[in-house]
Input
Amino acid sequence: MTLGVTKKEKIDALAENVGVSLAASAWKRLRRSPVFLIGATIIGIFVVLSLLSPWLAPHDPADPMLIKQVVKARNEIPPPQPGHPLGGDLQGRDFLSRMLVGSQQTLIVGVGATLIGLTGGLILGTLAGAIGGWVDSVVMRFVDVMLSLPALLLAFSIAAMFAHPSQFSVILAISIVQIPVFARLLRGSMLAQRASDHVLAATALGVKRGSIVFRHMLPNSLGPVIVQSTLVLATAIIEAAALSFLGLGNPDDRIPEWGQMLGDVQKVFDTHPHLAAYPAICIIIVALGFTLMGETLREALDPKNRR
Output
């Protein structure tokens, strides 16, 4: 009996010392982190509601079905009533339906801007980190110039250049602002990989430069960039709301978006603050969810935090 217990203890001790990958170790910490679980829950609810919003919306968000109840007086807006729990907006459209459909447009802008910014950053970061020399100098001086400008001011300037504002112009403006962030981060990671033992060994064995970059350096450098993308999503949603609030978003209010909805209620904010409170609170909560998940991912994937 004693021998059996001793063997079990030895087996348990050996199991604890078995090496695990960084991803497995990170996931073990993440699933025990209440901060990560809260952020993931917020994002999960937001994504599900966004994808299902066309079917969840009880009414057409562009239909002014409550227009008969709207008097021209400034303070007469349809209040909450049966079938319309949040009431209507200035045009008599169901506010709950517009909030639900607006979540989808907000998700499209955030994800679209992040993907375009990530793609541009990957290209510039790979060129700078893999080639080096004068290419690295030119790319990084361009990145430094862009980073020296306030992000929102730069996005506002780019969006204002379009003669006809649209959702695409907002996505493009925000994505251009995010490119230098990804480029600098990837370039730093690739420089660290370039001096690693496995890259030096591959170089000594005569492996082609392209294979070293795309099979060794780039895949091992993407971890910090992927984590940063979750943080950039939160920033992209806030900046998109800001541009739409300033009137540089999609001018067609039949397609609601949370930032656009904030801008539409400026003139009645003093009498109907709830029309601004609902989209503002949603923007804050969603941005918080992405931030919480991004920060916990950053900590979990840091090799220094492994035990």
Observations:
- Confidence is low (pLDDT under 50) at residues 13-18, 70-75.
- The domain at 25-55+93-305 is CATH 1.10.3720.10 (MetI-like fold).
- The chain has one domain: 25-55+93-305.
- Residues 95-131 form the longest helix (37 residues).
